[in-house]
Amino acid sequence: MLTGGGTPKRAYELAALEEGDWSRVELWWGDERCVPPEDERSNYRLAKEALLDRLERQPRTVHRIAGEDDPAKAASAYEEEVRDVTFDLVLNGLGPDGHTASLFPHTPTLEIRDRLVVPAEPKLDPYVERITLTVPALATCRGMVFLAVGEGKAEAARRAFAEPPSAATPASLVRSAAGETIAVLDRAAAAALGP
After folding, report:
1. 153-187 per-position pLDDT tens digit
2. What is the CATH number of the domain that holds 38?
3. DSSP structure string for 101-128
């Protein structure tokens, strides 16, 4: 499962260089902005340009969230696709406010346990509606990796990985239910974690 944002772009470029044959892979997304797939704000577009367009062999299946559709309908349709799926790997980013996917601090989406995919209100730029997997949906994986770089992520990383889980830091609530959760941080993002 892929994520959006600036941090994973380079990881996607490197992944395409390292392995050009993704024909045995199914790709999913953890969230999407409610924009058409060609829009510069689209998480799908980011992955297409940084990863998919650079591959020799395309993934077996690409499960794109239809951000251009009505948010409630798109969330419902994607929920049908992800139902009963256990993801091999979920890749998450970490926002400076501690959000991951489109799960923002102190929002009602953090409490949802009976849905897998829901519309989400925008809490930061770009201020467009979003569609996101819920905490339990993201947890349905064999492994989870968080990527974060830069000093602007240091306090969020401390709250997400060194303090008790809290609705103030949604990334602290999201962990693999069936396997390992790993945080990959550069020195600046890890600076507040201690020696």
Report:
1. 999 999 999 999 999 999 999 999 999 999 999 99
2. 3.40.50.1360
3. TTB-TT-GGGG--S-SEEEE---SSS--
